[in-house]
């Protein structure tokens, strides 16, 4: 498979705020007959979908299953031809194995402008922690896919996206319904149904003394197949149980010290942080930060006379529950998940905006208040009591899956495939370069052993690392190591932008 480097006409959408003018006609993917017009074009396009959909026999069965599990006639499988199954997925990612430019926007967006960026197979929607609806994701991706087809009509490489929300398949199901309703709208796009599954694994325990939070991408899933759907739902239920247990434990600690019942609530925690609301991702830190924030509000912020006076002047809540609600609303304006962080990172900005007290002064108030005997004793007691819910090498409450349990959860889908997401992130627990490679070696060894034949790929070409890990990833040593990993374990190298925002080309 070849990615053309030919300069194409510039397309009509915004990149970095600059509007580009189009010289290319809109591509509809069909011949418009001078007599029969669009009706003829539609007949031609539907016939083309039928012919194209039969190219990969395994994928025909896959699409039939997708529809059957939604209560739609499997005979309509050609109507969701834009959705590709395991056979075509493997062909696509193999074709891009040694072509990182296929997954990259380019340093100056040149690969987007030239339409040579051909894949972003790690994307999030509002079903988890993304900003796009599934409809918007498909529409924006299809717009670009039409431009790719228009500029390179004779090339085989379409624009490919993967829907990979955290620990849920809600938008994957939505995509099937949307595409089935209007297949011609998405005929030039290729869509992978997937999920980014949160797992905790004991990796390189001689170097790393806590389990590594390892994200695993699943491709080619049937989101409504009974056993897999049960697996996804049971993971959410286990997290819900832990949220409730942690809250009960925290309330007991609080009541023992301050004789006030039901100070904390799961419902309030869910308002503060969308992943807790949806029971996705890891939830211990989110719950812990919720407890610590509410304690800081009750025992420090609202006990400060200057802060309280300024809140009253502005008719803002001076009760703890009302204040927490306002804080949630405030953070949602910047991040729909609220990013519930420890008090020193969450509260200064919000309080400063509400009161005009400088953030630095609010932080000083917090630092002093959190050192008080009352708050120190409470937080220590809370840490000791909730520690049993932490994910440890031998957890007391094993509510998060491992590589092995992910494999078991997908056994009912024999053609689904798994891959390690953003691998360099799992090296942050160690600083020395040689230790980073040891961690990765052990991680891939366990991934291949425990996920068996489903261990298919690794996200080697990842755009969105944070500083530090980004530099380490760019080192020739690291690239050489990832190449060796791919060959040693028989893994295909893939890439992505890991889209969470409104732009389908970046994070």
Characterize the structure shown.
The chain has 507 residues and is α/β, with parallel strands linked by helices. The chain folds into two domains: 14-225 and 413-496, no CATH class; 236-389. Helix content is 48%, strand content 10%. The protein has helices spanning 37-53, 57-68, 86-95, 110-113, 134-151, 170-181, 226-258, 266-272, 274-278, 284-299, 305-313, 320-332, 343-355, 359-370, 373-386, 403-409, 433-451, 469-474, 476-489, and strands spanning 14-15, 18-19, 119-123, 159-163, 189-201, 212-219, 417-420, 455-462, 492-496. A seven-stranded mixed beta sheet has the order 3-4-5-6-7-8-9, with helices on both faces. It has a two-stranded antiparallel sheet with strand order 1-2. Helix 6 links the parallel strand 4 and strand 5. Helix 7 runs antiparallel to helix 15, helix 16 (403-409) packs parallel to helix 17 and helix 17 packs parallel to helix 19. The longest helix is centred in the middle third of the chain and has 33 residues, at 226-258. The protein is globular. The two termini are 26 Å apart. 43% of the residues are buried. Residues 1-37 have low confidence and may be disordered.
What is the straight-line distance between the termini?
26 Å
* Count of folded domains: 2
Largest sheet, in brief, is: 7 strands, mixed
Order of helices and strands: EEHHHHEHEHEEHHHHHHHHHHEHEHHE
Quaternary class: single chain
């Amino acid at each position: 498979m070849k990615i053309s480097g030919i300069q194409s006409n510039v397309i009509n959408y915004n990149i970095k705020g600059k509007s580009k003018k189009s010289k290319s006609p809109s591509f509809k993917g069909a011949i418009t007959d001078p007599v029969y017009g669009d009706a003829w074009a539609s007949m031609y396009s539907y016939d083309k979908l039928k012919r194209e959909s039969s190219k990969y026999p395994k994928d025909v069965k896959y699409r039939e299953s997708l529809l059957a599990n939604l209560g739609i006639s499997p005979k309509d499988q050609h109507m969701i031809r834009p959705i590709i199954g395991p056979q075509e997925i493997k062909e696509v990612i193999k074709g891009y194995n040694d072509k990182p430019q296929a997954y990259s926007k380019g340093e100056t967006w040149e690969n987007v402008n030239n339409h040579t960026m051909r894949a972003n197979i790690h994307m999030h929607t509002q079903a988890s922690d993304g900003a796009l609806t599934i409809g918007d994701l498909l529409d924006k991706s299809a717009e670009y896919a039409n431009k790719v087809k228009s500029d390179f009509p004779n090339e085989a490489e379409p624009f490919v996206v993967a829907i990979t929300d955290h620990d849920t398949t809600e938008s994957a199901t939505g995509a099937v319904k949307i595409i089935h309703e209007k297949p011609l709208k998405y005929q030039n796009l290729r869509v992978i149904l997937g999920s980014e599954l949160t797992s905790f694994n004991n990796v390189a325990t001689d170097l790393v003394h806590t389990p590594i939070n390892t994200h695993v991408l699943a491709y080619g899933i049937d989101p409504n197949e009974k056993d897999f759907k049960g697996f996804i739902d049971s993971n959410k239920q286990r997290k819900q149980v832990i949220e409730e247990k942690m809250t009960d434990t925290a309330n007991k600690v609080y009541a023992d010290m301050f004789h006030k019942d039901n100070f904390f609530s799961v419902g309030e925690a869910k308002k503060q942080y969308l992943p807790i609301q949806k029971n996705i991702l890891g939830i211990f830190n989110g719950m812990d930060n919720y407890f610590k924030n509410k304690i800081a509000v009750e025992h420090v912020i609202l006990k400060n006379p200057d802060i309280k006076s300024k809140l009253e002047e502005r008719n803002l809540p001076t009760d703890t529950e009302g204040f927490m609600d306002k804080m949630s609303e405030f953070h949602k304006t910047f991040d729909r998940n609220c990013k519930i962080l420890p008090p020193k990172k969450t509260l200064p900005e919000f309080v400063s905006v509400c009161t005009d007290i400088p953030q630095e002064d609010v932080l000083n108030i917090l630092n002093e208040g959190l050192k008080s005997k009352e708050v120190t004793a409470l937080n220590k007691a809370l840490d000791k009591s909730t520690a049993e819910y932490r994910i440890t090498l031998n957890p007391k409450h094993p509510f998060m899956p491992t590589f092995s349990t992910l494999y078991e959860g997908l056994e009912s889908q024999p053609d689904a495939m798994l891959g390690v997401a953003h691998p360099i992130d799992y090296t942050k627990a160690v600083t020395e370069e040689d230790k980073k490679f040891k961690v990765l070696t052990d991680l891939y060894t366990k991934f291949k052993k425990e996920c068996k034949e489903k261990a298919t790929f690794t996200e080697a070409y990842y755009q969105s690392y944070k500083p530090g890990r980004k530099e380490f990833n760019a080192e020739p040593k690291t690239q050489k190591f990832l190449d060796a990993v791919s060959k040693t374990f028989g893994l295909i190298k893939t890439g992505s932008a890991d889209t969470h925002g409104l732009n389908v080309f970046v994070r």
